[in-house]
Amino acid sequence: MTPRRLGQIAILVATAAVLTGCGVVAGPRQTVLPEPPNTAPSASSAPAGSPASSPSAPSPGVDGQQVVCGSGTTEISGSDQDVVLTGECASVMIGGTGLHVDATQAALGVVQLSGDRNDLRASDISDLSVGGQDNVVDAGTLSTVSLNGDRNAVTAAGFSALVVSGNDNTVHADSQGAVTDNGQRNTVTGR
């Protein structure tokens, strides 16, 4: 192969890596894959004082999983699962189909939600990015919100900035900041 040909191949590989999201990410990542639903009842019970029986610990439900944020980025992926997220979460990536994430007991910084038919319940979120179709977010106060996709719904007490790039998205918020609508048939109203 000629040096020119090798240079072209290197450029193609680098371009492909950038376009697929591969690259250097600051900080460690924690990837969490929800376990499949437990269809058989358990014969043993959790000992007293364990997180499963502690009154202060959230209950993930029969087919849910509890995830505690660590340092770096916490990833939750899968399909048709219930997940309870707790702790101090600087960065959270949620991707999949039919995920139900309860993050009402977590402190959330940057949240990236992608996929279809996902449901996120949270308190306050600093930076929310939603991509995909038919996702639902119910949160307290949001600083910045970016919606990319169609038929997504966000309900919040308020937001400071909203950018919508898609169609048929709905945002309900009592307190509204700047709104940029780059799509069609998007609705931004009070709750």
Give keywords.
single chain; 191 residues; mainly beta; 12-stranded parallel beta sheet; 1 helix; 12 strands
Topology:
Layout: H1 3-19, E1 29-32, E2 64-68, E3 73-79, E4 82-97, E5 100-116, E6 119-122, E7 125-133, E8 136-150, E9 153-165, E10 170-175, E11 178-181, E12 187-189
Parallel strand pairs: 1-3, 2-4, 3-4, 4-5, 5-6, 5-7, 6-8, 7-8, 8-9, 9-10, 9-11, 10-12
Tally of helical runs:
1
Q: Point out poorly predicted stretches.
A: 22-28, 37-62
| Cα radius of gyration in angstroms | 20 Å
From the helix content, strand content and strand pairing, which structural class follows?
Answer: mainly beta
Largest beta-sheet details: 12 strands, parallel
Helix content: under 10%
Shape: globular
> What is the total tally of β strands?
12
Mean pLDDT, all residues: 80
What is the N-to-C succession of helices and strands? HEEEEEEEEEEEE
Q: Distance between termini?
A: 63 Å
Strand content: over 45%
Structure at a glance:
By secondary structure, this protein is mainly beta. It contains 1 helix and 12 strands; from the N terminus they run αββββββββββββ.
Can you describe this structure?
By secondary structure, this protein is mainly beta. The chain is 9% helix and 54% strand. The chain has one helix and twelve strands, in the order H-E-E-E-E-E-E-E-E-E-E-E-E. Strands 1, 2, 3, 4, 5, 6, 7, 8, 9, 10, 11 and 12 form a twelve-stranded parallel β-sheet that branches. The longest helix is centred in the first third of the chain and has 17 residues, at 3-19. The protein is globular, with a radius of gyration of 20 Å. 27% of the residues are buried.
